[in-house]
Write a structure and sequence with these properties.
Strand 17 and strand 18 (422-428) form a beta hairpin. This protein has helices at residues 29-33, 53-63, 80-90, 121-130, 183-197, 237-248, 262-267, 274-284, 336-360, 387-401, 443-453, 459-477, 491-495, 510-532; strands at 12-13, 20-23, 43-45, 69-72, 92-96, 103-107, 114-115, 132-135, 174-180, 199-202, 208-219, 292-294, 310-318, 321-328, 331-332, 369-383, 413-419, 422-428, 434-440. Strands 9, 10, 11, 12, 13, 14, 15 and 16 form an eight-stranded mixed sheet that branches. Strands 1-3-2-4-8 form a five-stranded mixed sheet. A three-stranded antiparallel sheet has the order 5-6-7. The chain starts with 11 loop residues before the first strand and ends with a helix. The chain is built from 14 helices and 19 strands. The longest helix is centred in the middle third of the chain and has 25 residues, at 336-360. Helix 5 packs across helix 10, helix 6 (237-248) crosses helix 9 (336-360) and helix 8 packs across helix 9.
Length: 533
């Protein structure tokens, strides 16, 4: 009987006496299991990622020596099947992960595949020698009698994966807003936020996760014609380019109609192309607030399972800009978010071009620009097997994308001056328009005014303003010159003349000496009496 060390709830179990395991890659295990005789296999399950999943697959195989045949089938979106095949055929070598440079075993493949170094080299080679890997294009019609079993056998080996340690913080569980000019900047901040403030809980995948509910990310400047795909992303440029059509085109999701891509859900699932219809409506009614693309199938998704994570896309044209808001019910923020967000940005640009073309047919001077991409992740989570990797990515890259005072507060800027012993704050917009002027006698009073007005939205900005207010108050109290963002000049205090009163020397008179002598004698007498008592 197959006893899984890891991901046991993701697996489907068949014949306990069978020596065959089936890897379904990205295809749904339940769909494939329903097409073959259960007695033919021992265990069946997915392999979504070779960076994360290959290590766990090998640990399960080492703990279950009865498995000596692996059948690989299904859709290989992430190239995990290619990496698995390369592991058996080309081997592995000691190297480092691409994003965090953590030492590991790397599969000798053009795609990434990592195995932790606590698995001995001899054990990895033993798997390669005692397991036969067979690629099966169509499992339903495969002849199991043709399989060849390796002669060499292996003994059971148990290797428990080292637990990843992440520092714990305290924070709210629901409701965060992350802003970034690019997907990369937003993603780094998202990882940092979830690692610090995400709530730990179990999942139906037999994993632990850190989760934040309703995390909103806003991407303002990602160029769809020149996507930024840094080396520390879990997906490289080739993978992203292969993924994008799954969001923008009516591509099948797998080997059956019950499988889907986001593109197929939006363009054909309900018998119509919702994207084309949305474009047509915005051309007819550019100010409409009722342009919604739905991916949730209320008939099937609450009963069959395997429902899409992306459920809702809302389009809005305002100030000649196209804004797009996307809602994910469940969102793997480590592996899923970067490619999801990049593909959605491409989709947003394609829709923008089509809307602009339609409006230009009415008015050649019409121009529609690309607005913000907003992603609401209702369950924004990171699985425990990614915590350590995410932590290292954040440590290595956050400083490049998260300068404390580089991010502009969308609620405005503040010009601080001192006039007539008062602190004066001028609130301005990004276009330098004055929005308000506030005066106070102290930094504390001005703090209370700004809190009441609610015109600061970023913590770094608020901290910086707090420092400036205290400097302004200090300048008032010490009669110093105050210039915003400059240090106070205390040298002027040292140069001021300070009048010191002349020193007076007191010369005791004769009678004073006599009085002191008498007092001293009396004190000595009192002390002697105390000692004798």
């Amino acid at each position: 009987m197959f006893n899984a060390l890891y991901k046991g709830t993701r697996l489907i179990y068949g014949n306990p006496e069978s020596n065959i395991g089936i890897v379904t890659l990205w295809s749904k295990p339940k769909e494939l299991a329903g097409k073959i005789d259960q007695s033919k296999y021992s265990v069946l399950g997915p392999l979504y990622s070779a960076e994360r999943g290959l290590d766990l697959l090998i640990r399960n195989l080492l703990a279950n020596p009865q498995i000596n045949v692996l059948l690989v089938t299904g859709v290989d979106f992430s190239k995990s099947g290619v990496v698995l095949k390369d592991f058996f055929e080309k081997g592995f070598f000691k190297g480092k992960t691409d994003t965090t440079e953590k030492p590991c075993w790397r599969v000798n493949s053009e795609f990434e595949g990592y195995i932790d170094l606590d698995l001995p080299e001899a054990s990895l080679n033993l798997i390669r020698e005692t397991v036969s890997l067979v690629k099966v294009p169509n499992l339903e019609f495969f002849d199991f009698s043709t399989l060849q079993i390796p002669e060499k056998r292996r003994e059971k080996q148990i290797f428990i994966k080292n637990e990843e340690k992440v520092k714990k913080y305290n924070g709210e569980y629901i409701g965060y807003v992350i802003r970034g000019k690019t997907v990369a900047e937003a993603w780094i901040k998202i990882l940092d936020t979830i690692l610090k403030f995400g709530k730990e809980s179990g999942t139906h995948y037999d994993d632990m996760q850190k989760e934040i509910v309703n995390l909103m990310s806003i991407i303002s400047d990602e160029d769809p014609n020149n996507l930024l795909i840094p080396d520390f992303f879990p997906s490289d440029k080739q993978h992203v380019s292969e993924y994008i059509p799954r969001m923008t085109r009516d591509l099948p999701g797998g080997i059956s109609k019950n499988e889907y891509t986001y593109g197929s859900r939006m363009r054909s699932w309900f018998g119509l192309d919702q994207i084309n219809n949305a474009v047509a409506k915005l051309v007819r009614e550019p100010v409409s607030r009722a342009v919604v693309i739905s991916l949730w199938d209320s008939v099937k998704d609450l009963t069959i399972g395997g429902s899409p994570c992306l459920n809702h896309v809302w389009l809005r044209v305002n100030d000649n800009k196209l804004y797009m808001t996307c809602i994910f019910r469940s969102h793997d923020m480590f592996e899923g978010y970067p490619e999801n967000a990049l593909a959605l940005r491409i989709l947003q640009e394609e829709i923008r071009r089509e809307i602009e073309a339609g409006l230009k047919a009415k008015d050649p001077n019409t121009e529609i620009k690309l607005g913000n991409l907003v992603i609401l992740s209702q369950s924004a989570h990171i699985y425990d097997d990614s915590w350590e990797r995410c932590q290292k990515i954040v440590e290595m890259n956050l400083p490049k994308y998260h300068g404390l005072l580089k991010e502009l507060d969308p609620r405005g800027n503040f010009i601080i001056t001192v006039e007539n012993k008062e602190i004066v704050v001028e609130h301005t917009s990004s276009s330098k328009e004055t929005l308000g002027i506030y005066k106070a006698q102290s930094a504390e009073q001005m703090r209370d005014i700004l809190i009441k007005e609610n015109i600061l939205s970023l913590v770094p900005h608020a901290l910086d303003i707090g420092l400036e207010l205290m400097k302004a108050e200090t300048a008032i109290n010490l009669n110093l010159e105050y210039v915003q963002d400059n240090k106070l000049n205390f040298e002027s205090l040292e140069k001021k003349e300070v009048k010191i009163a002349p020193q007076i020397t007191l010369i005791p008179q004769k009678e004073d000496h006599t009085l002191l002598k008498k007092s001293k004698e009396q004190l000595s007498s009192i002390l002697n009496n105390l000692r004798t008592r």
